[in-house]
Amino acid sequence: MGGAMMAAKARVKFMIFLGALVIAVPGVVISVSMVAQFVAYFQQGADPASIFHGHALIIPEAESARWVGTRPMDGTAPSLPQQEEIISAYWLAWEALSRAQQTDNLSDLPTYWAGAAYTQVVAGMPAEAVQLQSHSGHTLHLSFFSADGSVAAFEDRNFSLVMSIHGISHSVDATASVVMTLDQGFWRIRQIEVRYHDPN
Amino acid sequence: MRRRLWLTLVMGIILIAVMVLAQEEPIRLRARMAIHAGDAWELTIAVADGEAGDQISVALLNGVQVLADRLTLGSGGAAVWRLPPGQITQAGDSLVIVRSGEDEVRRRLRVDPLQPATVDFFTTTNTLLAYGQDSATIMILPRDIWGNAPASSRFSLTVRYPDGTRLLPRFSYAGGIGWTEVTSQGGPGLVRLATEQGALSAALELQQTPATPHQIDLMVEPGCVLNDGRSVIALRADVRDAYGYAVADGTLITFNWAAGFGYGRTVDGQAVLRIPAPAEVGQTLYQARVGRVQSVLTAVEVSRGRCDDGR
User: Fold this and answer.
1) Mean per-residue pLDDT for B71-90?
2) Per residue in A95-133, is it b (16+ CB within 10 Å) or e — as a string?
3) Could you tell me which of B31, B98, B27, B38 has the C-alpha nearest to residue B63?
4) A48-196 is classed CATH 3.40.50.10240
5) Residue A116 with chain B: CB contacts under 8 Å
6) Domain residue ranges of chain A, discontinuous segments joined by +
7) In angstroms, what separates the C-alpha of B48 from chain A's closest C-alpha?
8) Which residues of B touch A76 (CB under 8 A)?
9) Residues 6+ apart with CB under 8 A from B139
10) φ/ψ (deg, to 5) at B57
11) Is the ipTM reported for this complex over the cut 0.85?
12) pTM above 0.95?
């Protein structure tokens, strides 16, 4: 009788041990993982894009934006990396505009817009009741690229914008003449003229 | 009989055409459809089945800004959208979108830029090699008070070279930027450029630089010194490019002699290094060098007694 009680007691203790183990193991794993993340956080350098307020090189999908003509009327043709830098910055400039309209936070705009174009884009803020929902189909035709690789002028033909105005989506097509300059290592839109297409 | 049939058919077609034409558009707009940047603008909207108090949505896509509003229809289903001066500022083809219920109408509004008020005048390089061996791209970014580029450019460009020559190249202009190539001409010196359109002007200068060193003439002064331990000699190198012009200021010249070497930088084509005269009696040879170009060996005479110049 006493032996059976002892055996039952031992079994209960073992069950309690197993239960504690089941709880303790994930707890230890999570704790170690959090400590590792904490240590890794202080071992990493700062993200250059965050400290210099610059942008990363994000090449848009071909259906979103692509170069169609890269031979300028005269002057030099940009190299492939230069084409990628320009189209990336141009794409991100529209993204920044969309973000600014959605959040009313303009701090990202100077990263992609400069000079007269920056003044114009800020003039439309805060864009109450207006949101740029999407932009696509940017087809870039180069008209000028300076020999020192710091000025590019191109036409973005027949791109599409979807805008929400007073909660209703409107799809419009447009063409833009754009001048971008390389300022402190980043391409920025310095001049832009948008021509919305005549629906009739 | 056949004639009557034809007549009936024609009358029927005319009747249908009149009915189609008479059918009223759901939204009618009336406004100037071409303005200048910064102008005030007024849009009159008439909604066919609109009633007083109904709300409609109006928007103007103007460049990278969107002006939007909600208007309340007045009697007769009409409303007026007034935009004061300084709101429609971006040149290009703007788009008016008016929506009433499920009906929507769009119209294009042409916004022309004003006359240029400022111009950025800049170049790809501040210096260029002289003698027609180099060129620079000269660019302009003209814009009006709202930052709009003009549709075309009438900016002139005047280039004055150091040799007095004056050229009037023309800018190519597209998409808001004007550019032209300017090739160097004549010898080193300042190239002055000026661009002008009406009362608006801008200027900049380029430096035409000499070519690389081609000839070094070395002089040692004096040519004879006493070995008194107090004399100083000056090594003077005159450095010219292939066209006979003094090389760029600051060109580093190396002076070599048997017992050592020293450096000097050119000012107006001349580099000078002053060093103690050698102590050994006899001839010491000196040479000046820059890159692969070197002078002939030039000697200084160190005398124990007196030099020929009477010292």
Assistant:
1) 92
2) bbbbbbbeeeebebbebbbbbbbbebbbbbbebeebbbe
3) B38
4) no
5) 143, 147-148
6) 1-46, 48-196
7) 20
8) none
9) A146, A151, B120, B121, B122, B123, B124, B177, B178, B179
10) -105, 130
11) no
12) no
